């Protein structure tokens, strides 16, 4: 049985998984539109409204509507509601769409610590600067509770990895000594909420970051599929702690069609791996062997070790070629 047929929905990360800088990644549009199961887009990016995300997905050829978008901005407001009553003043550090969502949730959105807000909630906005971060610090130092949409420290773009919301949140936390309550991945709430939206009993969480997408899906007791098109590469996978290890690993979206047994860690592509003290020796392979096959072969051994391996030692021409392609 292939991976898609083994699941009844896809819970998809966006940046680094579905698109990069708004441009679709390889095979994504074709796979999603033809997979035969509902797709829900679960994103830590709080700078866009669900309507805006749905519009962007439609522009690249995906069939999507706001009801199939779950953002960390939405999740943060649900989380905040458990501690901050409706009608309270809230200082929003983030995009205008986030401010609108906060008003729609029944809060008074303010712009200054002088307004004595009950809470500060911070989401991604590329226009955020020293003034906005300092205003948040003033409010938190005056007793406001601190919430964050997500703690992603980097954001994939077409030029590489840019500063993410978590890095900006970290500046405020460092200045105030107060750690935020985060609503986004890797917390499981976004995943369970997304699955309920489509009545899914066997969802598959797909993402490119081990510490958010995969850890969050695992925390929600869901199967997880890691794509090597974004943040976390092969070397990070090899060193991943148990909570961040995916069930399946693929070079990209096209490998969602692989049989379940193939996409899991295990010897394949004529590669062989064994533990040698603190290292892993990788041998074998052939002209048709791929770097992802070498990776899955190594992962089976690495994840059985009590500590991550010190080195991966390629001992054949094909092993050397595969390992050289890892990042």
Automatic annotation (TrEMBL):
This is HAD hydrolase, IA, variant 1 family protein. Keywords: Hydrolase. It comes from Corynebacterium simulans. SUPFAM superfamilies: HAD-like. One of its GO terms (molecular function) is hydrolase activity. PANTHER family: 4-NITROPHENYLPHOSPHATASE-RELATED (PTHR19288), D-GLYCEROL 3-PHOSPHATE PHOSPHATASE (PTHR19288:SF95). Signal peptide: none annotated. NCBIfam families: HAD-SF-IIA.
């Amino acid at each position: 049985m292939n991976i898609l047929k083994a699941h009844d929905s896809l819970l998809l990360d966006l940046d680094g998984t579905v698109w990069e800088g708004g441009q679709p990644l390889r095979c994504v549009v074709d796979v999603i539109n033809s997979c035969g199961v509902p797709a829900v887009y679960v994103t830590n990016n709080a700078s866009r409204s669900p309507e805006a995300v749905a519009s962007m997905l439609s522009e690249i050829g995906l069939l999507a509507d706001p009801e199939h978008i779950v953002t960390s901005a939405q999740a943060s407001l649900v989380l905040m509601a458990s501690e901050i009553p409706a009608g309270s003043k809230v200082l929003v550090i983030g995009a205008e769409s986030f401010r609108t969502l906060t008003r729609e949730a029944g809060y008074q959105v303010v712009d200054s610590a002088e307004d004595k807000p009950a809470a500060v909630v911070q989401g991604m906005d590329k226009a955020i600067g020293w003034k906005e971060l300092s205003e948040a610090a003033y409010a938190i130092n005056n007793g406001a509770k601190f919430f964050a949409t997500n703690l992603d420290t980097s954001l994939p773009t077409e030029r590489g990895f840019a500063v993410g919301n978590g890095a900006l949140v970290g500046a405020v936390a460092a200045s105030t000594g107060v750690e935020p309550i985060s609503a986004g991945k890797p917390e499981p709430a976004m995943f369970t909420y997304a699955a309920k939206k489509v009545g899914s009993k066997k969802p598959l969480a797909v993402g490119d970051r081990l510490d958010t997408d995969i850890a969050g899906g695992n925390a929600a007791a869901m199967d997880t599929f890691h794509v090597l098109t974004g943040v976390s590469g092969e070397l990070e996978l090899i060193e991943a702690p148990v909570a961040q290890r995916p069930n399946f690993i693929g070079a990209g979206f096209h490998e969602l069609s692989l049989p379940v047994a193939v996409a899991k860690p295990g010897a394949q592509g004529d590669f062989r791996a064994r533990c040698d003290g603190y290292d892993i020796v990788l041998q074998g392979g052939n002209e048709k062997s791929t770097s992802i096959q070498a990776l899955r072969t190594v992962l089976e051994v690495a994840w059985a070790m009590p500590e991550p391996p010190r080195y991966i030692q390629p001992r054949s021409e094909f092993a050397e070629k595969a390992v050289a392609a890892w990042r």
